[in-house]
Design a protein that fits this description.
The complex is a heterodimer of chains A (319) and B (668). Chain A is α+β, with helices and mostly antiparallel strands and 319 residues long. Chain A has six helices and 17 strands. Chain A folds into two domains: 165 residues, no CATH class; 75 residues, no CATH class. A five-stranded antiparallel β-sheet of chain A has the order 2-11-10-6-7. A four-stranded antiparallel β-sheet of chain A has the order 1-3-5-8, with no helix packed on it. In chain A, strands 4-12-9 form a three-stranded mixed β-sheet. Chain A is elongated, with a radius of gyration of 29 Å. Chain B has a five-stranded antiparallel β-sheet with strand order 10-7-2-15-14, with no helix packed on it. Chain B has 668 residues and is of the alpha+beta class. Among the domains of chain B are: 140 residues, no CATH class; 78 residues, no CATH class. The chains are: A alpha+beta (319), B alpha+beta (668). The interface between A and B is large, with 56 and 67 residues.
Chain lengths: 319, 668
């Protein structure tokens, strides 16, 4: 019984939602704000109908007056609910990446000329947050994510039933914004490759040990240019990188991570990277075609995690 | 991203209702409590004692729970309470149908709902129930004070509705202010709807008997002697607006009903045939007036003698009454014209005359004997009438509102033993005596007298002006009005009830003393009358009149709806435009800067649109080197205020003031 209703709802919200991405900053103009009575609003209307019938039946002049005053209040509620949204300015803020299986946070900045109360912001399939805006407000909305890679920002809904809860005003926005989803780290990490001595063989690397590729910078030695790889890309030159000068450092490679599938391996690597970062160890990461030279710090961590997130073919038919 | 992945809650066989709805806070609970209290208060006195006690107990219980932060009673207990209360209502009112049991049930639901407040949805139910009960209160009282009270209660109810919404917490008076502001915006809609919503004359269906509790000095039966005290009410029976001067007191007899059937104890109204047209064409001088009649649950419309006009939906009965189509159960207004001096041609239906002669045998033997004596001594009915009047005067009958009980042979007891009574005794005795002597007679019930309210000029007739008198049929003359009360104690008629009886016996407002009190009462009456005429009496007919006066030709529901839609649309547009107008904040910083720019312009330094403050300052400083320091300081202060970090308001105010000061002192 519930199914057709949901389908209808989906059709209806599809009808109202914008098809193209909105260009920030997005101002909620009159045409974008919709109003409909809530369940409470319908109950209110029903009560008013009963009161009107009562007034007619008993010829109650003051009953008419009360009914009409409440009817006027209903109209005022429509206008006020509409006003609470109309003119609000939205723009996406920098999203906060997260791990698959957990959540990412999409930021939304709200700008307003006037005070707005009880705005409920929600992402399709995600969290909703209530906020009041004086002039400017920054809201972060969590979205549960399952798969690593890019997660597009789903449709954003701003809704409000202020002031009386009888009328719901809402508006949709779709921003061309995406957040990175890191692979889910495995819970129980196998020992680092370095710990068993296996990974450390790279440690005593020859100075010309090939480590990976990176974009060419002026000043790179000509013999380090990876001509073949660059030819495939035809955008800019790539330089070979060599692991040389590091002392105590960890080298993480795909083939060193245990696991049956690529995803499992990536999960293990993610865990290693996180643990290495937590232990403030120098570490490097090499995936096929990408190499991050040994370093420490959060920037390095995020670079590694990003490489892991975007490595290889998407694990699922991601959009 | 599929939505299916995101339902962590396992399915339950019995999903807890309202589990997903936000619970109520303590503050919201108090708002709802105040709303329910405000809605219940005016009804308490109209409920049976057990119910008002139960409602107050429920409220007190709830207040105590809120106070002590206690748990709400379990659902099964509330369910039992609802069942018990419904049974009690059914027993107390003998059923659920009708106005009063309906109100009783709503009161119970409201009181119990307060004990079951768990979610916002419950809260909204409480507010809606409260609104309904506020309207139910109008069934009992539609006075100005009741209207103001309901408005105040509504402000609280709407405040509770706002408090149910997720908003930042505010103080009580701010919350009330929000509510009053919303209601203020709704007020124009109310006025437009009140004026233009096409009115329908109720009731829509047959109303239960308890719908009317008319307090009237009149009823269609009369049993003189069986009551020893007349309830003297100073409630208003009807108001009259004479076009011209009021007729003299001896013509102020307002006929409402006839009492023809007499069984020895009780006089009863006997319905007669009704016509849609006047049975005669009246002539002579006329009195025009308009009556606003309070509901009296009778069909008879008060009219002065020789009514010459039929109001809409009324008819003329064979005994010369003007009858409304149905008993008057809401305040009604009608125009009337009477011909006080006109004598209709003396013809009368034989059945009516026969009915006006019938008396039961063997009651009141002494009066019968007296009547036989008049018959024997007189040659005509007119002589008998005269003899009877003389006899009544000779008996030295006294007018009192507290006569002794006279249960058997009441007429004999009144005329020969106690000799004290009020109009019912006089009229009953006189009519009986005439009938016993063979003269057709009937009793007329209605009102006599009234007084002009000096404040608004309305002629006011109150329930204590209720009166009965006699009409006798004299061949050649027709029906003749005889007022035995007036003939015996003339002051009752000429001076009203106040003078006919001593001070202590009359109702407070009928007394001669307490002039200030009467003055105050006159003013109150005038205000109440204006309220009644303009607001409470606004029925379909009145609506058409008012709209016609406002310039709408032949108002009907189509025109009203069109106007209603147009005006409401205009109001909504105004509301939206006002709401969408962004209030431009007065920007003191920018204002000060403008003054500075004007001062520079007077020195020939024009600020071009492409110039930022710094560029402008450099140029100005170059041109006015002696003021370079001031220009730089002003510009720096302006830039800091305008483009710098957000400052705390106090600091910002101080820096703006400093900027203004610098600019004032800048005189190039």
């Amino acid at each position: 019984m519930k199914l057709p209703l949901r389908r209808w709802r989906q059709w209806f919200s599809g009808l109202l939602s914008p098809r193209r991405a909105d260009v920030p900053p997005l101002t909620l103009t009159q045409r974008r704000v919709y109003v409909l009575p809530t369940a409470a609003g319908l109950m209110y209307a029903f009560t008013l109908a009963l009161m009107l019938i009562g007034s007619i039946n008993y010829n109650l002049s003051l009953g008419y007056a009360l009914t009409f005053l409440l009817a006027g209040l209903g109209i005022v509620a429509i206008v006020q609910s509409f006003r609470n949204l109309a003119g609000l300015q939205l723009r996406p803020a920098r999203p906060t990446p997260g791990f698959a299986g957990a959540q990412v946070h999409f930021g939304v900045r709200l700008d307003s000329q006037r005070r707005r109360t009880g705005l409920k912001l929600s992402l399709a399939g995600g969290e909703s947050v209530l906020c009041h805006v004086q002039t400017q407000e920054l809201v972060h909305l969590a979205l549960p994510v399952q798969h690593r890679g890019w997660q597009a920002m789903p449709r954003l809904t701003v809704a409000s039933t202020w002031p009386l809860g009888l009328i719901k005003a809402w508006s949709h926005a779709r921003f061309d914004e995406r957040s990175l989803v890191y692979p889910a780290p495995v819970a129980a990490a196998p020992p680092w490759p370095g710990a068993g001595g296996e990974g450390r063989h790279l440690d005593m690397s020859e100075p010309d040990d090939f480590f990976g590729l990176r974009p060419h910078r002026s000043g790179d030695l000509r013999q380090h240019v990876a001509w073949k790889a660059s030819a495939r890309l035809d955008e800019h030159l790539l330089s070979k990188q060599f692991a040389a000068e590091q002392g105590e450092l960890l080298w993480f490679r795909l083939d060193l991570a245990p696991g049956a599938t690529l995803e499992e391996k990536l999960s293990v690597l993610t865990r290693w990277v996180l643990d290495a970062h937590a232990a403030q160890q120098r570490y490097a990461l090499r995936l096929d075609g990408t190499a991050l030279p040994p370093a420490t710090g959060s920037e390095h961590l995020h670079a590694c995690l990003q490489a892991l997130a975007l490595y290889g073919p998407p694990p699922d038919e991601r959009r | 991203m599929g939505k299916r992945d995101l339902s962590p809650t396992p399915r339950r066989l019995f999903r807890k209702k309202n589990a997903c709805l936000p619970p109520l806070t303590l503050v919201q609970g108090w708002w709802l409590f105040a709303t329910a209290l405000a809605a219940l208060l005016p009804l308490i006195q109209h409920l049976p004692l057990w119910l008002s006690t139960a409602a107050v107990t429920g409220m007190a219980w709830r207040a105590w729970l809120s106070w002590r932060n206690g748990r709400l009673p379990p659902r099964w207990l509330l369910f039992l309470l609802v069942v018990a209360a419904c049974v009690a209502v059914a027993y107390s009112y003998r059923g659920f149908f009708g106005r009063n049991p309906g109100i009783a049930l709503l009161v119970i639901f409201l009181a119990l709902k307060l004990l079951e407040l768990r979610s916002v949805r419950d809260g909204i139910t409480v507010v809606l129930l409260a609104c309904f009960l506020l309207m139910a209160g109008f069934l009992f009282n539609q006075g100005i004070a009741a209207a103001l009270y309901a408005l105040a209660a509504l402000v609280v109810a709407v405040a509770a509705l706002i408090a149910l919404q997720a908003g930042p917490p505010v103080r009580v008076h701010e919350r009330l202010g929000q509510s009053a502001s919303l209601l203020g915006q709704a007020l124009p809609f109310m006025l437009v709807l009140f004026l233009l919503f096409p009115r329908v004359q109720g009731p829509l269906w047959g109303l239960p008997q308890d719908a009317y509790t008319a307090a009237s000095g009149l009823s269609d039966t009369m049993a003189p002697g069986s009551i020893s005290q007349v309830a003297q009410s100073d409630a208003i029976a009807f108001r009259v607006q004479f076009k011209g001067a009021a007729p003299p007191p001896h013509q102020q007899y307002w006929r409402v009903l006839t009492l023809t059937d007499y069984d020895g104890q009780v006089w009863r109204h006997h319905p007669t045939r009704e016509h849609d047209a006047l049975p005669y064409a009246p002539a002579g001088p006329s009195v025009d007036y308009e009556i606003t009649l309070e509901p009296h649950n009778l069909r008879g419309l008060p009219v002065l003698e020789k009514a010459g006009l039929l109001p809409p939906e009324s008819s003329f009965s064979a005994d010369r009454l003007v009858l409304a189509a149905t008993p008057v159960r809401s305040r009604m207004r009608y125009a009337m014209r009477s011909y006080p001096d006109y004598t209709p041609p003396p013809e009368e239906n034989a059945r009516i005359l026969a009915a006006a002669l019938s008396i039961p045998p063997e009651v009141n033997p002494r009066t019968r004997a007296q009547a036989r004596q008049w018959r024997a001594q007189s040659s005509s009915d007119a002589d008998i009438l005269r003899a009877a009047a003389e006899f009544f005067q000779s008996q030295l009958l006294a007018y009192t509102l507290n006569p002794p009980l006279m249960e058997k042979d009441a007429v004999d007891a009144f005329l020969f033993e106690h000799k004290r009574g009020f109009c019912e005794h006089f009229a009953s005795a006189f009519a009986f005596a005439l009938r016993a002597a063979g003269v057709p007679a009937r009793i007329i019930g209605g009102y006599q007298g009234g007084e002009i309210n000096p404040v608004d000029g309305y002629f006011t007739v109150r329930q204590y002006d209720a009166h009965v008198w006699v009409e006798a049929w004299i061949d050649g003359w027709g029906w003749v009005r005889v007022d035995p009360t007036a003939d015996s104690t003339p002051r009752r008629i000429e001076g009203g009830l106040r003078t006919a009886i001593g001070g202590g016996e009359a109702p407070l407002l009928a007394r001669q003393d307490y002039a200030w009190l009467r003055e105050f009462r006159y003013r109150m009456d005038a205000v109440t009358n204006a309220w009644n005429q303009a607001v409470l009496g606004f029925n379909p007919q009145r609506q058409r009149e008012v709209l016609g006066r406002l310039g709408m030709s032949e108002p009907d529901w189509r025109k009203m709806s069109a106007w209603l839609a147009g005006l409401c649309g205009a109001l909504i547009l105004a509301l939206v435009l006002n709401a969408m107008r962004e209030r431009k904040k007065h920007d003191a910083t920018r204002h000060a800067w403008q003054i500075f720019l004007r001062k520079l312009a007077r020195q020939g330094i024009d600020a071009q649109p492409w110039m930022g403050p710094d560029t402008l300052a450099r140029r100005a400083a170059a041109q006015l080197p002696q003021h370079a320091a001031a220009i730089r300081a002003i510009t720096a202060a302006y830039v800091a205020l305008r483009y710098g970090d957000e400052l705390p308001p106090e600091l910002r105010r101080r820096q703006t003031a400093a900027l203004r000061d610098m600019i004032r002192r800048f005189r190039p």
